[in-house]
Predict the 3D structure of the following.
Amino acid sequence: MRKASTKVTLIFYVNVLLVIVLISYKIYLNFFEQQFTAVHTVQLQRIEAALAGRSTYSFAVLGNINNSVGVFERKIIPLLNQSGVDFVVSAGNAVSSGGEDKYRALYRTLSHLHMPYLLTFGENEASRLGGFRFYDHFGPYLFSFSAGNSRWLFLDSTGKTDYQWQLRWLEEELAARGPEQVFLFSGHPFKPVSAEGLFDFDEEEYLFSQKARQQFVRRIEQSGVDAVFSANLPLFFDQQHHHTHYVLTGGAGGFVPDSEHGFYHYVEVMVDNGQLEITARRLDIGQHPLWRTLESLWFFIHSLFYVGYLNFLLLVSALIVAAIWLYRQIFMERDYYPNFDADPELFRQQPLKVAMFTNNYLPFIGGVPISIERLRRGLRQQGHQVLIVAPSYQENMVGEADILRLAPLLPVGRQGEFRLANIFSFKLYRRLSRFRPDLIHVHHPFWLGSIGILVARWLSIPVVYTYHTRLEHYAHYVPLPGPLFRNLVSHTLVRRFANRCDGVVVPTESAEEYLRMIGVKRPLFVQPTGIDYDRFQDVPQKEVQQLRAKLGLGEEKILISISRLSKEKNIDFMLDAVADLARLCPVPFRFLLIGAGAEQQRLQARLEAEGLAGQVLLVGAVPPEEIPTYCRLSDIFLFASRSETQGMVILEAMAAGLPVVAVRSSGIDDIVQDNVNGFKTPPDAAHWCGHVVELLTDGALYARLSRNARKGARRYRIEQFGKNIAQVYARVLANRATEKGHLKPGAKRG
């Protein structure tokens, strides 16, 4: 076991401890913490009892507590407990927001007071649906009470309660007043204050609603209200209008500016036989920025427990994931080198049974079906048995004893290019059970490919995946936003699927580099798809002449491309370039485009509209056995697709001695060598056309590239392809057997 650093080990144990503490704390909060409702009812009873029969008393008013622990709970509350006031009133913003966590934290903070308390419903109390919590935990926004020959009235300045209704209520309350003092509380002030240079604020943002303010002020001053207390700004002001004090207090714990009117304080109100004295008790206290930051962090963590179970579960899950990751990094042994104890020779000595899963297959014409068919032929030549699981088509051929066709559930793509096979078919699992494969080979990272992995898990056998297709270029087939699929979903899908397999075959080194870059950790084997090289050498000249006559071709040079006619194949680029080529090239030529697909009708219409129908011929689908004749008929092979992992049709064209002009991409770069067997260009029509003209006009250049193309393609014969993939199977089987302990080093497989 590899040694882990002490620091990482410590982090792991701290992380585990944190998970335990969080879960324990959540249990405590749900089963042991005290619940509280209608708190004001109890507090009013205490105030009325304390002031009964008294004409002299005092109370404290605070604004903008803002859930402060460092200032309010630890410093102001002890001073209040020693001040001798009979009760405390918050003028608004006792909480930093109306979240459940903030109300519970405030309730615990206020429990440290030795006297009763009341809260005014302010802006912060109403935020984040806090009005419902205030009503449940404390009581109505609008209320009044009498005690000690005085009357206290509380308004809702947030607009939750209709102002006209509040004005009517206030008029009735003031009309019924006696000789006692009247104190009014409103979270938003009624009078503006002068704070020039301190804040850049709009008066309408902190004042009581302008629409109702004048009506309330007129009624307040006509009735002789003694004092109106408000919060909402971190300042202290005491203004007097028509014998009414308008007190703005906002220094009970939240941030305050260092200015003439900005300081921590509470307001003490002394009533002595009808005489009123209002004093701001300035407090020379503060809080270090570090402690304020830590306090904010704690409130954030604490809030996760009250917003809902979802946040709590997400937090705990994230910590558990982190713990698992740390555990793997610290305690799990890792060996980044191949397992040299696994001897693949033991699996090369006998025939294998291989089940292949593919989402498309012959008679559907495409690179993947043709590659699978060639692999099947190569493996059978080596004596292996192959069962192919594929969708069925109306054109299914007879005599498919080693092919299991599944009825399609529905076609996908325009004109039903792809078919989703019925993965729920009972015959699929029955046939596989009878076949008893030694290994599963999947060719797509979804649908039947995923079923292949499930079957492999069921049978406890390894899985090999061939990365054929750059999925990011197929976003137009997927019902998701294009950028989302191209930039995230496609790469994630390939990475996750490949990492579930025991080995991954890639056709080129550039494809191998891509998979490593996106995070594939499984063993990768570079193995290009094989071609039937000899068939491209043994084409009778008579067949070539017959095809030329059939297509109505003369002695002009023939350019050819073989591709499915779909958006990702970049056909329009070639047509644009050929249109330029027709104007620039001094040599007569025809361009044959072989293949079918959803774009065929649109492309034909474009050729006719642009007058290119005589220059470009859409041949349509051609049976694979006729492709060698078309290639021997032609002079140059053209290609523009950038979605290939390997340009198999390019190898076939090279086998027929055709130089290649292709747009540079991952599937092309490892096969085409500039000025050796062809040319690779950027996606620029001028460059592309320039190289085509070179080949058409320079006989010596053409002859050299043609010889090199045929020579290079010789290395990719089907026979060698089958042998190489069989070696991949042997390596994967040996690794699996050694990992499970079924095969010890030096042992022989029976």
About this structure: Residues 1-33+313-333 form one domain. The radius of gyration is 41 Å.
